[in-house]
Design brief:
By secondary structure, the chain is of the alpha+beta class. The chain contains 14 helices and 10 strands. The chain has 2 domains: 186 residues, no CATH class; 194 residues, no CATH class. Strands 2-3-8-5-7-6 form a 6-stranded mixed barrel, surrounded by 4 helices. A hairpin with a 2-residue loop joins strand 2 and strand 3.
Length: 397
Protein backbone atom coordinates (compact mmCIF):
# COMPACT_ATOMS: atom_id res chain seq x y z
CA UNK A 1 0.00 0.00 0.00
CA UNK A 2 1.32 3.45 -0.94
CA UNK A 3 2.31 5.35 2.16
CA UNK A 4 0.06 8.30 1.21
CA UNK A 5 -2.97 5.98 1.23
CA UNK A 6 -1.86 4.32 4.48
CA UNK A 7 -1.35 7.62 6.28
CA UNK A 8 -4.56 9.11 4.87
CA UNK A 9 -6.65 6.15 6.07
CA UNK A 10 -4.99 6.18 9.48
CA UNK A 11 -5.47 9.93 9.80
CA UNK A 12 -9.20 9.57 9.00
CA UNK A 13 -9.51 7.12 11.94
CA UNK A 14 -7.48 9.30 14.28
CA UNK A 15 -8.05 8.68 18.01
CA UNK A 16 -6.70 9.79 21.39
CA UNK A 17 -4.99 13.18 20.90
CA UNK A 18 -6.64 13.73 17.48
CA UNK A 19 -10.10 12.51 18.48
CA UNK A 20 -11.63 15.76 17.21
CA UNK A 21 -10.41 14.96 13.70
CA UNK A 22 -12.02 11.50 13.80
CA UNK A 23 -15.35 12.94 15.04
CA UNK A 24 -15.26 15.66 12.42
CA UNK A 25 -14.62 13.06 9.72
CA UNK A 26 -17.64 11.09 10.95
CA UNK A 27 -19.81 14.22 10.90
CA UNK A 28 -18.72 15.05 7.35
CA UNK A 29 -19.33 11.46 6.23
CA UNK A 30 -22.79 11.45 7.83
CA UNK A 31 -23.69 14.77 6.22
CA UNK A 32 -22.78 13.53 2.76
CA UNK A 33 -24.69 10.27 3.32
CA UNK A 34 -27.83 12.13 4.47
CA UNK A 35 -27.63 14.56 1.55
CA UNK A 36 -27.22 11.80 -1.05
CA UNK A 37 -30.00 9.74 0.57
CA UNK A 38 -32.43 12.68 0.67
CA UNK A 39 -31.68 13.69 -2.91
CA UNK A 40 -32.23 10.18 -4.30
CA UNK A 41 -35.50 9.72 -2.38
CA UNK A 42 -36.91 13.13 -3.32
CA UNK A 43 -36.04 12.73 -7.01
CA UNK A 44 -37.57 9.23 -7.04
CA UNK A 45 -40.79 10.48 -5.43
CA UNK A 46 -41.03 13.37 -7.89
CA UNK A 47 -40.42 10.97 -10.78
CA UNK A 48 -43.19 8.79 -9.37
CA UNK A 49 -45.62 11.71 -9.15
CA UNK A 50 -44.78 12.79 -12.70
CA UNK A 51 -45.26 9.27 -14.06
CA UNK A 52 -48.51 8.69 -12.13
CA UNK A 53 -50.09 11.98 -13.18
CA UNK A 54 -48.96 11.48 -16.78
CA UNK A 55 -50.53 8.01 -16.79
CA UNK A 56 -53.81 9.34 -15.41
CA UNK A 57 -53.95 12.23 -17.85
CA UNK A 58 -53.23 10.00 -20.84
CA UNK A 59 -55.98 7.61 -19.74
CA UNK A 60 -58.52 10.26 -20.80
CA UNK A 61 -56.45 12.41 -23.17
CA UNK A 62 -55.05 11.05 -26.43
CA UNK A 63 -51.37 11.17 -27.36
CA UNK A 64 -52.17 13.26 -30.46
CA UNK A 65 -55.41 14.99 -31.41
CA UNK A 66 -56.29 16.13 -34.93
CA UNK A 67 -59.04 18.72 -35.31
CA UNK A 68 -60.52 20.68 -38.17
CA UNK A 69 -61.33 24.39 -38.56
CA UNK A 70 -64.12 25.53 -36.27
CA UNK A 71 -63.96 22.23 -34.41
CA UNK A 72 -65.41 20.48 -37.47
CA UNK A 73 -63.78 17.72 -39.52
CA UNK A 74 -65.90 16.48 -42.42
CA UNK A 75 -63.70 13.93 -44.17
CA UNK A 76 -62.33 12.40 -40.98
CA UNK A 77 -61.84 8.90 -42.40
CA UNK A 78 -59.31 10.17 -44.93
CA UNK A 79 -57.51 12.04 -42.16
CA UNK A 80 -57.42 8.91 -39.99
CA UNK A 81 -56.02 6.86 -42.89
CA UNK A 82 -53.34 9.49 -43.56
CA UNK A 83 -52.40 9.54 -39.87
CA UNK A 84 -52.17 5.73 -39.81
CA UNK A 85 -49.28 5.98 -42.29
CA UNK A 86 -47.10 7.41 -39.55
CA UNK A 87 -44.93 4.60 -38.10
CA UNK A 88 -45.66 5.48 -34.44
CA UNK A 89 -49.47 5.57 -34.79
CA UNK A 90 -51.09 2.36 -33.49
CA UNK A 91 -54.77 3.34 -33.29
CA UNK A 92 -57.21 6.16 -34.10
CA UNK A 93 -60.75 7.08 -33.06
CA UNK A 94 -63.13 9.86 -34.13
CA UNK A 95 -64.78 12.09 -31.56
CA UNK A 96 -67.29 14.90 -31.22
CA UNK A 97 -66.71 17.45 -28.49
CA UNK A 98 -68.85 20.28 -27.23
CA UNK A 99 -70.02 22.17 -24.17
CA UNK A 100 -73.35 21.45 -22.51
CA UNK A 101 -75.38 21.97 -19.36
CA UNK A 102 -76.55 18.92 -17.41
CA UNK A 103 -79.69 19.16 -15.29
CA UNK A 104 -80.97 16.61 -12.77
CA UNK A 105 -83.74 17.84 -10.51
CA UNK A 106 -82.53 21.12 -9.04
CA UNK A 107 -78.86 20.38 -9.68
CA UNK A 108 -77.21 22.03 -12.67
CA UNK A 109 -73.63 21.48 -13.81
CA UNK A 110 -71.63 22.49 -16.85
CA UNK A 111 -69.81 19.67 -18.64
CA UNK A 112 -67.62 18.84 -21.60
CA UNK A 113 -69.53 16.32 -23.71
CA UNK A 114 -67.47 13.91 -25.79
CA UNK A 115 -69.09 11.71 -28.40
CA UNK A 116 -67.18 8.46 -28.96
CA UNK A 117 -67.33 5.11 -30.71
CA UNK A 118 -66.96 2.79 -27.67
CA UNK A 119 -65.02 0.04 -29.45
CA UNK A 120 -62.58 2.46 -31.08
CA UNK A 121 -62.26 4.67 -28.01
CA UNK A 122 -60.94 1.74 -25.98
CA UNK A 123 -57.99 1.55 -28.39
CA UNK A 124 -56.85 5.14 -27.75
CA UNK A 125 -57.82 5.64 -24.08
CA UNK A 126 -58.12 3.60 -20.87
CA UNK A 127 -61.64 4.46 -19.74
CA UNK A 128 -62.42 0.77 -19.35
CA UNK A 129 -60.17 0.29 -16.34
CA UNK A 130 -61.55 3.44 -14.68
CA UNK A 131 -65.22 2.45 -14.89
CA UNK A 132 -66.93 2.25 -11.49
CA UNK A 133 -70.37 1.35 -12.81
CA UNK A 134 -71.58 0.19 -16.21
CA UNK A 135 -69.33 0.12 -19.28
CA UNK A 136 -68.69 2.05 -22.48
CA UNK A 137 -70.32 -0.75 -24.48
CA UNK A 138 -73.65 0.34 -22.96
CA UNK A 139 -73.48 3.49 -25.10
CA UNK A 140 -75.59 2.49 -28.10
CA UNK A 141 -76.56 4.77 -31.00
CA UNK A 142 -80.08 6.15 -30.77
CA UNK A 143 -80.57 5.16 -27.12
CA UNK A 144 -79.05 8.37 -25.78
CA UNK A 145 -77.10 6.86 -22.92
CA UNK A 146 -74.45 8.86 -21.05
CA UNK A 147 -71.41 7.97 -18.92
CA UNK A 148 -70.48 10.57 -16.28
CA UNK A 149 -67.39 11.29 -14.28
CA UNK A 150 -67.81 10.17 -10.67
CA UNK A 151 -67.67 13.67 -9.15
CA UNK A 152 -70.05 15.01 -11.80
CA UNK A 153 -72.56 12.23 -11.10
CA UNK A 154 -72.39 12.90 -7.35
CA UNK A 155 -72.82 16.63 -7.88
CA UNK A 156 -75.95 15.96 -9.95
CA UNK A 157 -77.13 13.35 -7.48
CA UNK A 158 -77.72 10.65 -10.09
CA UNK A 159 -76.88 6.95 -10.37
CA UNK A 160 -76.98 4.57 -13.36
CA UNK A 161 -80.51 4.15 -14.62
CA UNK A 162 -81.62 7.69 -13.80
CA UNK A 163 -82.23 10.53 -16.26
CA UNK A 164 -80.39 13.80 -16.86
CA UNK A 165 -81.37 16.59 -19.19
CA UNK A 166 -78.62 17.84 -21.51
CA UNK A 167 -78.89 21.39 -22.83
CA UNK A 168 -76.69 22.18 -25.85
CA UNK A 169 -75.64 25.76 -26.60
CA UNK A 170 -76.72 25.39 -30.24
CA UNK A 171 -80.32 26.58 -30.32
CA UNK A 172 -83.31 26.06 -32.58
CA UNK A 173 -84.68 29.16 -34.31
CA UNK A 174 -88.44 29.50 -33.87
CA UNK A 175 -90.90 32.37 -34.32
CA UNK A 176 -90.60 32.91 -30.58
CA UNK A 177 -86.82 33.20 -30.78
CA UNK A 178 -83.87 30.90 -30.31
CA UNK A 179 -84.67 27.94 -28.07
CA UNK A 180 -81.78 25.87 -26.63
CA UNK A 181 -81.62 22.27 -27.77
CA UNK A 182 -82.58 19.96 -24.92
CA UNK A 183 -82.38 16.17 -24.86
CA UNK A 184 -82.92 13.67 -22.08
CA UNK A 185 -80.16 11.10 -21.53
CA UNK A 186 -80.07 7.97 -19.38
CA UNK A 187 -77.04 7.48 -17.12
CA UNK A 188 -75.53 4.09 -18.02
CA UNK A 189 -72.23 4.30 -16.14
CA UNK A 190 -69.69 6.33 -14.16
CA UNK A 191 -65.89 6.44 -14.15
CA UNK A 192 -63.13 7.62 -11.80
CA UNK A 193 -59.99 8.57 -13.72
CA UNK A 194 -58.28 10.36 -10.82
CA UNK A 195 -58.13 13.62 -12.79
CA UNK A 196 -60.28 16.44 -11.41
CA UNK A 197 -61.11 17.94 -14.81
CA UNK A 198 -62.36 14.59 -16.12
CA UNK A 199 -64.11 13.29 -13.00
CA UNK A 200 -65.99 16.53 -12.35
CA UNK A 201 -66.62 17.82 -15.85
CA UNK A 202 -66.56 15.11 -18.54
CA UNK A 203 -69.55 13.24 -19.97
CA UNK A 204 -69.34 10.52 -22.63
CA UNK A 205 -72.09 9.76 -25.15
CA UNK A 206 -72.20 7.74 -28.34
CA UNK A 207 -70.70 9.43 -31.41
CA UNK A 208 -73.96 9.35 -33.41
CA UNK A 209 -75.96 10.76 -30.52
CA UNK A 210 -73.46 13.62 -30.23
CA UNK A 211 -73.66 14.25 -33.99
CA UNK A 212 -77.44 14.44 -33.71
CA UNK A 213 -77.31 16.68 -30.64
CA UNK A 214 -74.86 19.15 -32.15
CA UNK A 215 -76.30 18.90 -35.69
CA UNK A 216 -73.05 17.79 -37.31
CA UNK A 217 -74.46 15.24 -39.74
CA UNK A 218 -71.67 12.79 -40.55
CA UNK A 219 -68.88 15.18 -39.53
CA UNK A 220 -66.90 14.98 -36.30
CA UNK A 221 -64.80 17.36 -34.22
CA UNK A 222 -61.57 15.47 -34.82
CA UNK A 223 -59.58 12.25 -34.57
CA UNK A 224 -57.66 11.00 -31.53
CA UNK A 225 -54.46 8.99 -32.02
CA UNK A 226 -52.55 6.55 -29.85
CA UNK A 227 -48.80 6.06 -30.35
CA UNK A 228 -46.43 3.23 -29.49
CA UNK A 229 -44.13 5.81 -27.86
CA UNK A 230 -45.84 8.63 -25.95
CA UNK A 231 -42.63 10.70 -26.00
CA UNK A 232 -42.73 10.73 -29.81
CA UNK A 233 -46.01 12.67 -29.73
CA UNK A 234 -44.46 16.06 -30.40
CA UNK A 235 -42.54 14.92 -33.50
CA UNK A 236 -45.54 12.97 -34.83
CA UNK A 237 -47.83 16.01 -34.43
CA UNK A 238 -45.27 18.16 -36.23
CA UNK A 239 -45.03 15.68 -39.12
CA UNK A 240 -48.81 15.45 -39.40
CA UNK A 241 -49.08 19.23 -39.60
CA UNK A 242 -46.92 19.17 -42.73
CA UNK A 243 -48.60 16.11 -44.27
CA UNK A 244 -52.25 17.12 -43.74
CA UNK A 245 -54.11 20.09 -45.29
CA UNK A 246 -53.18 23.48 -43.88
CA UNK A 247 -56.54 24.07 -42.21
CA UNK A 248 -56.18 20.93 -40.08
CA UNK A 249 -54.44 21.26 -36.72
CA UNK A 250 -52.60 18.52 -34.78
CA UNK A 251 -51.71 18.90 -31.10
CA UNK A 252 -50.01 16.49 -28.71
CA UNK A 253 -50.46 15.79 -25.00
CA UNK A 254 -47.36 17.77 -24.04
CA UNK A 255 -48.92 20.90 -25.52
CA UNK A 256 -52.39 20.43 -24.04
CA UNK A 257 -50.87 20.11 -20.53
CA UNK A 258 -47.66 22.05 -21.13
CA UNK A 259 -47.92 24.30 -18.06
CA UNK A 260 -48.33 21.40 -15.66
CA UNK A 261 -45.43 19.31 -16.93
CA UNK A 262 -43.18 22.38 -17.22
CA UNK A 263 -43.96 23.27 -13.60
CA UNK A 264 -43.12 19.73 -12.44
CA UNK A 265 -39.82 19.79 -14.33
CA UNK A 266 -38.84 23.18 -12.89
CA UNK A 267 -39.76 22.02 -9.38
CA UNK A 268 -37.61 18.92 -9.82
CA UNK A 269 -34.60 21.01 -10.85
CA UNK A 270 -35.08 23.42 -7.94
CA UNK A 271 -35.31 20.55 -5.45
CA UNK A 272 -32.12 19.08 -6.92
CA UNK A 273 -30.29 22.36 -6.34
CA UNK A 274 -31.67 22.82 -2.81
CA UNK A 275 -30.79 19.31 -1.67
CA UNK A 276 -27.40 19.49 -3.39
CA UNK A 277 -26.60 22.29 -0.95
CA UNK A 278 -26.85 19.74 1.88
CA UNK A 279 -24.07 17.75 0.26
CA UNK A 280 -22.10 20.95 -0.29
CA UNK A 281 -22.35 21.85 3.41
CA UNK A 282 -21.11 18.39 4.33
CA UNK A 283 -18.26 18.74 1.85
CA UNK A 284 -17.27 22.04 3.44
CA UNK A 285 -16.86 20.12 6.71
CA UNK A 286 -14.14 18.16 4.94
CA UNK A 287 -12.27 21.43 4.49
CA UNK A 288 -12.35 22.10 8.22
CA UNK A 289 -11.24 18.52 8.92
CA UNK A 290 -8.17 18.89 6.72
CA UNK A 291 -7.32 22.41 7.83
CA UNK A 292 -7.10 21.49 11.52
CA UNK A 293 -5.01 18.41 10.79
CA UNK A 294 -1.29 18.39 11.64
CA UNK A 295 0.68 20.35 9.03
CA UNK A 296 3.53 18.84 7.02
CA UNK A 297 1.56 16.12 5.21
CA UNK A 298 1.83 15.92 1.49
CA UNK A 299 -1.09 16.72 -0.79
CA UNK A 300 -1.89 13.09 -1.63
CA UNK A 301 -2.49 12.22 2.03
CA UNK A 302 -5.08 14.95 2.39
CA UNK A 303 -6.79 14.02 -0.85
CA UNK A 304 -7.02 10.41 0.34
CA UNK A 305 -8.54 11.45 3.64
CA UNK A 306 -11.11 13.72 2.03
CA UNK A 307 -12.06 11.20 -0.64
CA UNK A 308 -12.44 8.38 1.91
CA UNK A 309 -15.00 10.55 3.71
CA UNK A 310 -16.72 11.38 0.42
CA UNK A 311 -16.74 7.85 -1.00
CA UNK A 312 -17.98 6.18 2.19
CA UNK A 313 -20.63 8.86 2.80
CA UNK A 314 -21.80 8.72 -0.82
CA UNK A 315 -22.02 4.91 -0.83
CA UNK A 316 -24.02 4.89 2.42
CA UNK A 317 -26.32 7.58 1.05
CA UNK A 318 -26.82 5.76 -2.28
CA UNK A 319 -27.67 2.46 -0.60
CA UNK A 320 -30.04 4.13 1.88
CA UNK A 321 -31.64 6.21 -0.88
CA UNK A 322 -32.19 3.27 -3.23
CA UNK A 323 -33.64 1.08 -0.46
CA UNK A 324 -35.97 3.87 0.69
CA UNK A 325 -37.09 4.75 -2.85
CA UNK A 326 -37.85 1.11 -3.68
CA UNK A 327 -39.86 0.65 -0.46
CA UNK A 328 -41.55 4.05 -0.20
CA UNK A 329 -44.97 2.38 -0.57
CA UNK A 330 -44.25 0.38 2.60
CA UNK A 331 -42.31 2.94 4.67
CA UNK A 332 -44.77 5.84 4.34
CA UNK A 333 -47.91 3.84 5.30
CA UNK A 334 -46.00 2.41 8.27
CA UNK A 335 -45.10 5.93 9.47
CA UNK A 336 -48.68 7.13 8.92
CA UNK A 337 -50.03 4.17 10.89
CA UNK A 338 -47.51 4.55 13.72
CA UNK A 339 -48.17 8.27 14.25
CA UNK A 340 -51.83 8.35 13.12
CA UNK A 341 -51.16 10.97 10.46
CA UNK A 342 -51.84 11.34 6.74
CA UNK A 343 -49.23 13.08 4.59
CA UNK A 344 -51.45 13.50 1.53
CA UNK A 345 -55.15 13.89 2.26
CA UNK A 346 -57.46 12.46 -0.39
CA UNK A 347 -59.68 15.54 -0.09
CA UNK A 348 -56.82 17.89 -1.00
CA UNK A 349 -54.32 16.11 -3.22
CA UNK A 350 -54.83 14.50 -6.61
CA UNK A 351 -52.72 11.47 -5.64
CA UNK A 352 -53.20 10.43 -1.98
CA UNK A 353 -50.21 8.06 -1.91
CA UNK A 354 -46.52 8.72 -2.42
CA UNK A 355 -45.46 7.04 -5.68
CA UNK A 356 -41.80 6.38 -6.45
CA UNK A 357 -39.99 5.88 -9.74
CA UNK A 358 -36.29 5.15 -9.14
CA UNK A 359 -34.20 6.02 -12.19
CA UNK A 360 -30.57 4.94 -12.46
CA UNK A 361 -29.70 8.19 -14.20
CA UNK A 362 -30.71 10.14 -11.09
CA UNK A 363 -28.77 7.76 -8.81
CA UNK A 364 -25.60 8.12 -10.90
CA UNK A 365 -25.98 11.91 -11.08
CA UNK A 366 -26.37 12.21 -7.31
CA UNK A 367 -23.46 9.83 -6.63
CA UNK A 368 -21.18 11.73 -9.00
CA UNK A 369 -22.29 15.01 -7.43
CA UNK A 370 -21.38 13.74 -3.95
CA UNK A 371 -17.98 12.46 -5.09
CA UNK A 372 -17.28 15.59 -7.11
CA UNK A 373 -18.06 17.97 -4.25
CA UNK A 374 -15.97 15.83 -1.87
CA UNK A 375 -12.98 15.95 -4.23
CA UNK A 376 -13.42 19.69 -4.77
CA UNK A 377 -13.49 20.28 -1.01
CA UNK A 378 -10.11 18.54 -0.56
CA UNK A 379 -8.18 20.46 -3.19
CA UNK A 380 -7.44 23.76 -1.44
CA UNK A 381 -6.51 22.43 2.03
CA UNK A 382 -4.45 19.66 0.45
CA UNK A 383 -2.59 22.13 -1.74
CA UNK A 384 -2.14 24.50 1.19
CA UNK A 385 -0.75 21.74 3.44
CA UNK A 386 1.65 20.53 0.75
CA UNK A 387 3.31 23.98 0.74
CA UNK A 388 4.04 23.95 4.47
CA UNK A 389 7.71 23.48 5.33
CA UNK A 390 7.83 20.63 7.91
CA UNK A 391 10.77 22.18 9.78
CA UNK A 392 8.99 25.54 9.94
CA UNK A 393 5.82 23.85 11.17
CA UNK A 394 7.68 21.90 13.87
CA UNK A 395 9.61 24.93 15.14
CA UNK A 396 6.84 25.90 17.52
CA UNK A 397 5.80 22.35 18.48
Amino acid sequence: MRYELLVGLRYTRAKRRNRFIGVNSLVSMTGIAVGVWALIVVLSVMNGFQKEVRTRILSVVSHVQISGPGNLLADWRAVAQAAAQQPHVTASAPFVQGQAMLIAGRSVRGALVRGIEPAEEERVADFGRHMRAGSLEMLKPGEFGIVLGGDLARALGVIPGEKVALVAPQGVVTPAGVIPRLKQFTVVGTFEAGIVDADSGLALVHLRDAQTLYQLGSAVSGVRLKLDDLFAARSVARELMTALPQDIFASDWTRSHANFFRAVEIEKRVMFIILALIILVAAINIVSTLVVAAPGSVMQIFVVQGMVIGVVGTLIGVVAGVVTALNIDVIVPAIESAFSIKFLSKDVYLIPDLPSDLQMGDVLSVALLGLGLSLFATLYPSWSASRVNPAEALRYE
